[in-house]
Amino acid sequence: RDVRRAIDACVRGKSPKISLSGLVVREMAATQQQPVSQSADNLEGVNSDSKTTLLLKVALLIPSLDGHDSQSFLDLLKGWIHSRIGLNEVSIEELQSDVTPTSFEARSIVRHCRNADDSNDCDVALIIVPPPWSTSDDRRRRLSSIRSLVEDSVPRLALVLGEFDHEGHEYMKSVLAETLGTTNGTLPIVCTRSATPVALEKALETSCKKLSQIFVSESCIKVDRMSVPRLVARAVS
Over pLDDT 70: what percentage of the chain? Predict the structure, then answer.
């Protein structure tokens, strides 16, 4: 109930939207913070008017909820996410690099995915784990079912809503890594620790920043490893 009241307060509040595209272009520009003379390999064939365009597709995953009011809570939770980062809306941001003759453009979209078809082309996944937290076998099965919605190669992050003491927090992290993480157990986790509007908003902002970092470092740079012109062709294809 405390989390529900806090989310309701967030929805009624007028916090500014979080721009995932803006976070991505700033993160991308930060990876280019080198003098041009030291970045010849990265800038091969780049003209002064070159632009790197990146497409970010985020799969929003929410485990099924219990209780007679589960649908109303899900609607409230989605309403909060929509008010802060937008659902099914394309966000576009552009940033000129200070140290290279390149501008960066990012286009992002967040989709609530209910099946594997919804998320088959996503770049990263944001998993929101709402209360009540439980270690029951049923709860584990519900959490594990989410993992089947995205390929194991897709980077993911879990945002856990609730209140936990230190011992409960550590155990929760191990269970989530087992049920929601990749096969090697990789799963960054952001936890609210307290059920207040401020804590929820901060946790969501932190999650979005981490997602942008994961996208640039794992889904973009590491996968492509190509010159900027080829990266552009890959990103817009």
Answer: 75
Bridge partners for 50 per DSSP: 102
- Tokens 């929509």 appear where? 82
Give the type of residue at 166. Answer: H
- Single-letter residue type at 14: K
Q: What is the DSSP letter of 57?
A: E
Instruction: Look up residue 90 and give its DSSP letter.
Output: -
- Cβ–Cβ < 8 Å for 50, 113: no
- Measuring CA to CA, which residue among 212, 210, 188, 203 is closest to residue 56? 212
Six token digits for residue 207: 């999650």
Query: Alpha helix (H) ranges present in 31-151?
Result: 70-85, 137-147
pTM more than 0.90: no
Can you tell me the mean pLDDT for 20-47? 61
Asked whether 133 and 160 are in contact (CB, 8 A), the reply is yes
Q: Is the dihedral of CA 20, 22, 28, 34 positive or negative?
A: negative
CB-facing half-sphere around the CA of 102: CA atoms within 13 A: 30
Contact (CB, 8 A) for 110 and 119: no
Nearest CA to 109 among 210, 190, 28, 215?
Answer: 215
